[in-house]
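ok so for the tutorial part 2 we go from a plain amino acid sequence to predicted structure tokens. step 1 is just haveing the sequence, like this:
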Amino acid sequence: MHLFLLSLLLQYVAPALAAPATFDASSMSINQLNDSLSSLFSDDVIASNFPTIFNLTTTPQNDYINYRIPNTPTLLRVSLYPTKPISKAAMQVSILRTQQAIREYMSGHYGIADTTLSHDDNPWKSDPAWKGCFIGVTGFPIESYKLTYQMVANVLDGLWWFLFREGRYMEAIFEVQEDGIGTVGVGKVSKARP
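step 2 — the prediction. this is what the tokens look like for a chain of 194 residues:
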């Protein structure tokens, strides 16, 4: 708990300087990602016990924005939905509680930070008790995902800085890229739990 509070304090004290965004020409656009996820999360896949957290039937209001998460090898490619606002308070609680949950999980399981998410933890989701803002992050591509617990913690830090601290209180979808690996996951921030 003390580490969590220290982390929050450092977020307010240390400046959040984003590294220059990089572009991976081999990566797909958000619209292509949206189409791919829609087909991957079909009824057949759901029936085969794959946990689905995304309902990407709408097109984002803009193309993606690259955001390098400070002091990490993780890049978020985010597409925002400005016509779908989320309460500031709900977003704050959801991000902070989800950050706390993954940090407590990692501190209770020595050495797990750099291992891929277990089947039970993929996708990593915000607590259903917190209403008004849902966060979900899952490994992608499905057949060989490499999303680790530390990468999920990085993503949550990035969502804190990119969405909450910058006043972007709205729904978003995102792709997670890791330096040296490429795309390792996808995620969604929405007002309601899918």
